[in-house]
Amino acid sequence: MAVKCSNLIYTPSTSLAFTITGATKDITPHRFDNTIASLEGPEGLNIQTGLTMEIKKTLYKVNFIESKVINGRTIYTLSTAKPTRASTFITPMIGEKKEDFFWNRLFMNCFISTKQDGYCIALLFRWSGDPLFLKFESTLSKMKNFKRMYDPSTTTVMFVFNIDTSNADDYYSFIAGKYSEMSSTYKRRILDFHSVGKHSEIGQILYKAPERRNRLSKMLGVPLDTNSELLSIITEETESFDEDFYKCKPKLR
């Protein structure tokens, strides 16, 4: 459900982001280095990156502000973080279907490390008192590779897992950016987890689809060798958990 303030409409979209629609023509974006750093609007509206907003009783720390125009109307998306690649390629090591992980509603991101744990599988969620989520917590904590659970903040909970030996080769292939070298069994598991097929974007990356290679070649303006991976290697800093980056600060509204 959206929240209407004056002529602006605030709508939670995922556990990481919300949108501002409505009379966005009254909003003035301020840019720094070609990115939006703040928004000014009617009734003293002043949203800056780093601040926290409450939308439908959910706190969002605003680290990114983006805009796009659809049918002549500007939509602003304000988010805490982008989904990590580990969320796509590593989370399936823990479960079978993304729906089981409260995807978009409570699941925030998967990480390959924390400052305390080194290489691991770390799943960050918004905390919830929903009995289904509490049961889910209990299920995760009983898994054989479960290492620990802790609260990075008053609104989040982190589950940390050791890397199972059966998944180690696939895990380190991901770290090295060798997506196509993951085992055929695990590739299938990734696709099943996201309920997509080989022709999906994820499938085209895992199986080095010619159509994706041709598309990337045109975009980059250079031919790509058939041996080239079709997604760049990860940035480990981005894929590792930074507690301060996610921690909410005094809320704006």
Structure description:
- The model has no long low-confidence stretch (mean pLDDT 94).
- The chain has three domains: 3-79, no CATH class; 100-163 and 241-246, Phosphorylase Kinase, domain 1, CATH 3.30.200; 166-237, no CATH class.
- It starts with a strand and ends in a 7-residue tail after the last helix.
- The strands form four sheets. A five-stranded antiparallel beta sheet has the order 1-2-3-10-9, with no helix packed on it.
- It has 253 residues and is α+β, with helices and mostly antiparallel strands.
- A hairpin with a 2-residue loop joins strand 1 (3-5) and strand 2 (8-12).
- The chain has helices spanning 85-89, 131-141, 168-175, 184-194, 201-206, 210-220, 236-239, 243-246, and strands at 3-5, 8-12, 17-22, 28-32, 35-40, 46-48, 52-55, 58-61, 64-70, 73-79, 107-114, 118-126, 146-153, 156-161.
- The chain is 24% helix and 32% strand.
